[in-house]
Amino acid sequence: MSSLYTRSKEFTRSRKSQSDSPPASPSPIAKTLRHERLSRLESEGSSHTTTDTYSDRASAKARREARIASLTSRVEEDCQRDYRKLYESALTENQKLKTKLQEAQRELADVKSKLEKVAQQKQEKTSDRSTMLEVEKRERRALERKMSEMEEEMKVLTELKSDNQRLKDENGALIRVISKLSK
After folding, report:
1. d(Cα 154, Cα 124) in Å, to the nearest integer?
2. Which stretch is the leader sequence (predicted)?
3. Which residue in 5, 123, 124, 158 has its CB near the most CB atoms, within 10 A?
């Protein structure tokens, strides 16, 4: 096994590209050209060239910082738009759920009032009691079934409401994290 490992290491070493190898030493012509260029620059005045290089570096740095700032502002705007959309959709869904909950509560109150009316009618009416009892029992069973179904719906709506609140809290936490990261 170790012999395979050493062979593979040698194989990778032999396959190195020229870009991985160190640059070749410059030719004598390139050295003389570089020397002439440096001597010309020195003859023009070293303070002028250093000032130019410093100003070039400063302007390049300023351009780079401006590009980075514009990119980060774009990213922040995109993130804020996305979170704003998520927040707005959560709000609209929450409003819809609230209206459904209110409608279910109204229906439940109506069913309860009907059930109470049926109970009152049962006490008031004594004539033809046997037939009325059957009808009332059916109505009562139907109303109780409907009431149990509505209670189940209420449970589902409360679960949805808690999920919606959890999503709102997570959204707020994400917004806080993004605002901290953007600072």
Report:
1. 33
2. none
3. 158
Could you give the CA distance from residue 25 to residue 33 in angstroms, rounded to a whole number? 14
Structure tokens at 112: 């309860």
Q: Where are the domains of the chain?
A: 45-182
Q: Which residues contact 182 (CB under 8 A, 6 or more apart)?
A: 72, 76
- Of 168, 144, 150, the closest CA to residue 100 belongs to 150
pLDDT in tens, 96-141: 999 999 999 999 999 999 999 888 877 776 666 777 788 888 999 9
Q: How far is CA 28 from CA 21, 31, 35, 114, in A?
A: 21, 5, 10, 108
State how far the Cα of 155 lies from the Cα of 104, in Å rounded to an integer. Answer: 11
38: tokens are: 């440096």
